[in-house]
Amino acid sequence: MTLRMLQLQTMYHSMKIKVENVVKRGKVGDEYIIGEEGQKAFNKWKDSFTRQDHPTVIQVLLQNSKDKDIIGHLMPNLIYVCRQKSRTSPHHFKAGALNVLLRVSATMTNAPIILTLDCDVYSNDPSTPLRALCYLFSPQDQSKFGFIQFPQIFNGINKNDIYACEFKRLFQINPVGFDGLNGGNYVGTGCFFSRRAFFGGPSKLVSPEIPELGPYNVVDKPIQSQPIMELAHKVAGCNYENQTKWGYEMGVRYGSLVEDSFTSYRLHCEGWKSIFCNPKRPAFLGDAPNTLIDMLNQHKRWAIGLLEVSEPRFLFYVFLFLGAYGQDFQDFILSSGTVERWWNDQRIWMIKGLTCYLFGFMEFFLKFLGISTHGFNVTSKVIDDKQHKRYEQGMYEFGVPSPMFVPLVTAAIINLLSFCWGLVEVFRGSKLEGLFVQMFITGFVVVNSWPIYEAMVLRSDKGKIPIRTTLISIFLAWGLVAAASLTLKELKL
User: What is the predicted pLDDT for the residue at 289?
Assistant: First the structure.
């Protein structure tokens, strides 16, 4: 390890301790405040300042007219923005936060190009902005391209990708085909937008409620001047969007937890086109979930969001998917995939169908009836050394007594019992022809469920299925089997 890496590690641990102390105490102590700027920023953190209820916080950390790096080069502007929140005012999670950033950036710089990145994604190629600018400022095409999407590529995925987090089809295969239409979808990160695209179609400009927010406004005042800062705080208020077109005709669109897919769909409908740019050297890299519960929670959120923009014609696409199942395997292998990764990908689809998609549908249905609402949960990407070791060995990480594991384990138990009963029937001399399809289906599920059986019975580490989950699943499986047997007896009578 180099001296520089050791210094960075020391700085990180020091910062971590400071943050943990502040969170524990509920305020920033004077010993952590350096200079007048720091005092000014943290004066807003009062006793009533909570995550759900606090005023707008906008702080210029670096200013390109005066701040320089260690070799004397001017630094770009760096501005911290935290929108106002109130318990009594609704907010639109990530989409609402992005719209606040759009408005605040308009008042302070109004740059024509916007890059969106997730918090765990970092640049892997300094030439990436040049690639995007070549498309967005092309003389013959700049009037029709709304955004340039780069693929999501993840670090830390184990050899056979047991949780199918590579998303080869979603982030690498499908967008290439969409380039023949209006272009691929926005996937929430690694995307360069033309600011103009957020204000109506190429031939129809939707004017914002104040001129300073328009895509062609020129900011002619210093970034920290009083008029600029006052307007920035105003447009970041939690009630600012009331009776405006934000989220519906302008900005990132509301109506779904998957605001990225929904927004790109709306932009394409308005006439914008997009480009999928997939250079040999990945433009951006990020981290994938390393535990099963984190992956399932992420997909439950996606399932809810996608259901919010589905319609009856979606069944047609289900039919097409079933008809193209064999081609799916071919595409996966031809795209430098492996049989093991494809197999794990199919297994994860089965797991997601019984967990995050099931619970996502239930939450969506309850919300539709007005009984319950859902929230935005950030996917955890932090693991300890033992978890990481198990992940690298290809072992599924259960560990958490989540309700989502109950239907999964219950289904695995029922299919194992059904398969064993089928074997008994075969040995009794029953005709195999009548049992073949049933044995094939249950056998396929049993083979895919091996990690579940292993985590129930054979493992003793912290990643095993909790005993409570196993007992509840056994009880439910017994109840379902008993109910099915009773129903069959009544039908025979």
Answer: 82
SS3 call for 11:
helix
DSSP string for 197-260: GGSS-TT-PPPPSSGGGSTT----S-TTSHHHHHHHHHHTSTTTTTTS-BTTTBSSPPS-S-HH
DSSP, collapsed to helix, strand or coil, labels residue 53 as: coil
- CA 93 → CA 158, 241, 375, distances in Å? 31, 14, 8
CATH class of 83-366: alpha beta
Cβ contact 175:135 at 8 Å: no
- Least Cα distance to 288 among 398, 148, 401, 391 occurs for 391
pTM: 0.72
> How many residues does this entry show for the chain?
493
The phi, psi pair for 29, rounded to 5°, reads -70, 155
Q: What's at 353, amino acid-wise? A: G
Partner residues linked to 85 by β-bridges: 54
Burial (Cβ within 10 Å: 0-12, 13-18, ≥19) of residue 185: buried
| Bridge-based pairing state of the strands 154-155 and 57-62 | unpaired
Report residues of the chain scoring pLDDT below 50.
Answer: none
Copy the structure tokens of residue 221: 């005042």
CA 166 and chain centroid, separation: 13
Q: What is the pLDDT of residue 381?
A: 55
The Cα 387–Cα 364 span in angstroms is 32
363 closest CA partner among 301, 426, 425: 301
129-163 burial, b at 16+ Cβ within 10 Å, e below that, comes to eebbeebbeeeeeeebbbbbbbbbbbebbbeebbb
Phi, psi of 6 (to 5 degrees): -65, -40
Give the phi and the psi of residue 78 in degrees, each rounded to 5: -135, 115
Looking at residue 90, its pLDDT comes to 63
Alpha helices (H) in 26-76, listed in sequence order: 35-42
Domain boundaries, the chain: 1-32, 83-366, 398-492
Strands 145-149 and 78-82: unpaired
- The string over 91-125, giving b where at least 16 C-beta atoms fall within 10 Å of a residue's C-beta and e elsewhere, is bbebbbbbbbbbbbbbbbebeeebbbebebbeebb
pLDDT value at residue 490: 64
